[in-house]
Amino acid sequence: MEEKNSMTAERSLEIITEQIERNRKIVAKNTGQSLYIIGLCIICTALLVGCSVALTGNAAFYFLFILLPFIIYGIKKYVNRNKPKTPESFIGNMVNKTWLTFAIFSILFYVFSILFNRLMLHDATVAGDMMVYFQNLIRPFRIILLIMGMAITINGYILKSRWLVWCGIIGGIIGFFWESFCGTETILSRLYEMEYLFHFLHVFIPCFIVALYAFVGLLLPGIQLKRQK
Amino acid sequence: MFQPLDPLLHSELRLAVMSLLISTEEAEFPYIKEQTGATAGNLSVQLDKLSAAGYVNVEKTFKGKRPCTICRITDQGRQAFESYVNALKSYLNV
Question: Distance from A15 to chain B by nearest Cα, in Å?
Fold first, then answer.
């Protein structure tokens, strides 16, 4: 673009429209790429954790979820290397902050529930001459699914995508009740004779649900924004 | 009666820069250069003019060891841009 001072009013308007539109597209594409990377990372991690825990029986693999923010940061840095930093838009900011809030709350709640289940609230009742202890467990997964549904719904509103809003509402509520009423265990109870398969699916299905939510809530909107014309 | 057009904004490159900055919070120099297709020297001169008029705030920092120039539109710049667009509207009868 050269320095020209003799422009018509039409040309001025054309420049303004062109620049704003071009910038909007680039920012939308960048937000889409960001959602795409986050979605892909969550899907891969959830499936990896599901398979690893199911096959080895080592619950320590769940802590891979805590490493997710670092993995995502590293991949984003690598993908955007040698590229000038794209400015942030209000929409992009809102989407990123929604997911950041979700990540903070879900990780904190997950850690809290693990500690709570291990250390706290062991009720005791007297049954005859015996003291019977039992534990009130927090099932963190149902709350995580609920707030994940909320995050998807809010993103749907921000991105003005009706299907995303409905996916978030339906997914969040179904996920919450599914976990509250032990949907996975109820279905798997029919497989009690196949002990290995039961154990595998019991661990794998919740991780698969997280991957599914990430696919709908992050990967699909990411692809949609990236392909926006 | 036509409103006068701000001569500082009535230039292709400066107008493109202001249009770009109006829709973002801030933008780095290489990004503006890429989007406007201007040469670094020309863009730098135009940014200096906008900065001297108080329309743009230019911050020179470092990104690691590399120098990094960040540009932001000021409130004064935003007002000037709005007046310019309103003036354009009066010319075009929009």
Answer: 6
Q: What is the four-CA torsion angle of B79, B81, B82, B86, rounded to 10 degrees?
A: 140
Contacts of A94 in chain B (CB under 8 A): none
Tell me which of 1.10.10.10, 3.40.630.30, 3.10.420.10, 1.10.760.10 is the CATH number of domain B25-88. Answer: 1.10.10.10
Residue B67 near residue B58 (C-beta atoms within 8 A): no
| Cα–Cα distance measured from residue B70 to residue B67, given in angstroms and rounded to the nearest whole number | 10
Contacts of B91 in chain A (CB under 8 A): 9
pLDDT tens for each residue of A121-165: 566 677 677 777 766 778 888 888 899 889 889 988 887 888 888
| Chain A with chain B: Cβ pairs closer than 8 A | 83
Q: ipTM of this predicted complex?
A: 0.85
